[in-house]
Write a structure and sequence with these properties.
Layout lengths: L16 H13 L4 E5 L3 E2 L39 H4 L2 H9 L2 E4 L6 E6 L2 H10 L4 E4 L4 E6 L5 E5 L2 E4 L5 E2 L9 E2 L2 H4 L8 H7 L17 H17 L4 H16 L7 H13 L4 H15 L2
Parallel strand pairs: 6-10
Antiparallel strand pairs: 1-2, 1-3, 3-9, 4-6, 4-8, 5-6, 7-8
Length: about 300
């Protein structure tokens, strides 16, 4: 964080829309890719042309994209340091309605450890290297130099925001920004036995209906599961709802004839957990989908 650290503290006073734009331009000038947030700390949704990602995604996403929509679509992938884009007409409506300014930490070579409780802060103080600290409404952001995969709920009250994620701008914070350490990187490393535990923690029965199987080859089921995994992985918002709807779609097609095994369900759970869902949330979504279908 270079010139961006010169921005004054905002205090508790809500910023006016013009001030959001002014702040965004200053942050962009300091090297932070910015985007507007609406109420609820959420990015602005896709425009009609980009709804459900039919446009193919933004070019600055990790997967190849072809969308060149000038509006602040696609959440974190819309973040930019280009003042002409930030000041453009397609962004003007978003700035008028914006409730906050966000930035893409990974795009600026940063990682934010989001500590959301007093217990999480106490844990960080004895576990993680000291670095620049930004007080938040409920806790603190600890900011490090370097990027890593983002992940929610890596431990109680702790989220990692870096690549493919956004963080709300509050103020510059205090202290020197330390290099990203192995202690932080280790927070998102899954133990090799984790997928096995997820499968074993499945406490709801796998459907085993007696209906006639319509699947002529195993590839039909495998193709459906691959599409379901891709749908979950591609979700950029409403993760809970996406997981539930995907489970519902899989069960509606494959649940009645008994084709699904625990290994198949574990694949779906693993994809959901990679997006931040807990095993408990996966089980609840699976159970609710089975109940709705009467399985």
């Amino acid at each position: 964080m270079t010139q961006a650290t010169d921005i004054r503290r905002e205090g508790s006073r809500p910023l006016l829309p013009a001030e959001h734009l002014h702040t965004a331009l200053q942050l962009a000038d300091g090297g932070l890719p910015v985007l507007p947030l609406r109420a609820g700390k959420l990015p602005f949704g896709n425009c009609p042309a980009c709804a459900r990602n039919t446009c193919g995604g933004r070019p600055n996403m990790r997967t190849p994209g072809r969308c060149i929509c000038p509006a602040p679509c696609h959440g974190w992938a819309a973040a930019t340091t280009d003042p002409h884009v930030i000041n453009s007409a397609p962004w003007a409506r978003a700035w008028r309605e914006a409730a906050a300014v966000a930035y893409h930490p990974g795009g600026a070579g940063l990682t934010v450890v989001d500590l959301d409780s007093a217990d999480a802060i106490a844990w960080a103080r004895v576990t993680l290297p000291a670095t620049r600290t930004v007080p938040t409404t409920r806790g603190e952001h600890w900011i490090y130099r370097g990027t890593m995969p983002s992940s929610n709920a890596v431990r109680p009250g702790v989220d990692i925001k870096s690549l493919m994620q956004y963080a709300r701008w509050l103020h510059p914070g205090e202290g020197a920004t330390a290099p990203l350490s192995d202690a932080v990187r280790a927070l998102v490393v899954k133990q090799p036995s984790a997928p096995h535990r997820a499968s074993q923690s499945l406490t709801v029965p796998v459907p085993g209906g007696q209906g006639a199987c319509p699947h002529r080859t195993p590839s039909y089921l495998n193709r459906g599961l691959a599409m379901a995994e891709a749908r979950i992985t591609a979700a950029r918002s409403e993760i809970h709802a996406t997981v539930y709807r995907t489970f519902l779609a899989v069960l509606s097609t494959h649940g009645a004839c008994g084709c699904l095994t625990e290994a198949h369900v574990a694949r779906l759970f693993t994809a959901a957990q990679a997006k931040g869902e807990s095993a408990r949330h996966c089980i609840d979504a699976w159970t609710n989908a089975r109940t709705r279908l009467g399985l």
